[in-house]
């Protein structure tokens, strides 16, 4: 830092550098500009340092000139930085996996210690329903041939049979609410027979340690984890911990229940234990902790799991990556935890994504994650039948970014480095300087869109630099230095997004066509 201050002093800048941490200056050189700009803002406006710092933002348009970088626009509000503990729930499988992996890499890049956890829904009523289905439709021969595929088929069949009962229970509940009657009592008549009774009975046996049900659960868990590990390996995604609802200790759940009772948060209703969320200032209905059969509900297991993870990891932030159709669950859980331990509740964050997708209409129900890749390969194999214009690599896309990264790497060869000056190349250099800002913005928002948009600007500017009407582009030593910087930024960004540079693909795929 002393050498840096000496260099700045030689340029006529006042030293020491005002209000900038050493780590921030070294990780993001643009913070040096901010430090001096902050001083100017406080002098001319009379505001405090914090207000001046929050008002500074990087520009989106490099056409405003060099000062657009160091004299950015004002931003009225800024989000505080957060620390990371990454929890990935399979929610909507592929999307939650990809988003969670991005967040993990993002927090890694910002210097945080990240634990990647895959929380399996391997307990409770979904497993109990699968067991009921197995009793009716299970086949050892089909299981041996394709374990996960057969389990999906069994679950799909029993779920179809169960849906009319679920619809009747929901209708009874809605009618009771309209008429001001107890909704639990209204549902009890329907849920005391049929598949409801079979499922609830199996769920209770599972919790009580019944040998037959637990052997079935163990087989299911083993084959499902193996299948997902293979799927994640294909995606290049790793987890530090595979845990599940089944591993939540009964003692911790009892501890949570006792805390809820001691604080008069939970109450008994028609044999079940629940929380009236309106008493906690929320409109999230009634949260069931234990059902009338005595089985623990997912909410109770999740509450207990938070406490266990807090004790195990002492995390600063725990992020759930789960589809938006689980929003009510997380609203209930966070609100209940807030009443029990606000400091812990403030460390939790739900990153949700839209459940709307055309994948179900395309693939149908009951498919393994690997089936998605099979469909992608089928689509790629038929590219010769596709309109060339529609298949062209244009616009803001992953293939364009990877192709340009390959082009830049190829163009570098063995060039020497020296100073560059041309307009197109200077504009590219200014865009590259914004990369730390883009990553920091993504870190604050937990969104990938800013990085994707940024790479569109990079690829467009690289294309301008490599587009010579008169013939082959001359790779001077100065241009080589710029291409090397571009290659580094592209590689770092692709790593964050989970894309592998073309030059790092397996040798057998080296003939894959790329855009030049």
Automatic annotation (TrEMBL):
Oxidoreductase keyword on record: no
Q: Which InterPro entries match?
A: Arg-tRNA-ligase (IPR001278), Arg-tRNA-synth_N_sf (IPR036695), ArgRS_core (IPR035684), DALR_anticod-bd (IPR008909), Rossmann-like_a/b/a_fold (IPR014729), tRNAsynth_Ia_anticodon-bd (IPR009080)
Magnesium as UniProt keyword: no
Reaction(s) catalysed by this chain's protein: tRNA(Arg) + L-arginine + ATP = L-arginyl-tRNA(Arg) + AMP + diphosphate
Q: Which domain of life is it from?
A: Eukaryota
MF terms (GO), sorted A to Z: arginine-tRNA ligase activity; ATP binding
E.C. code:
6.1.1.19
- The residues covered by the DALR anticodon binding domain are 402-505
Keyword vocabulary terms for this entry:
Aminoacyl-tRNA synthetase, ATP-binding, Ligase, Nucleotide-binding, Protein biosynthesis
What is one Pfam family matched by this protein?
Answer: tRNA-synt_1d
The record ties this protein, via PANTHER family, to: ARGININE--TRNA LIGASE, MITOCHONDRIAL-RELATED (PTHR11956:SF11), ARGINYL-TRNA SYNTHETASE (PTHR11956)
Query: Would you tell me the protein name for this molecule?
Result: arginine--tRNA ligase
Supply the source organism's classification. Eukaryota, Fungi, Dikarya, Ascomycota, Pezizomycotina
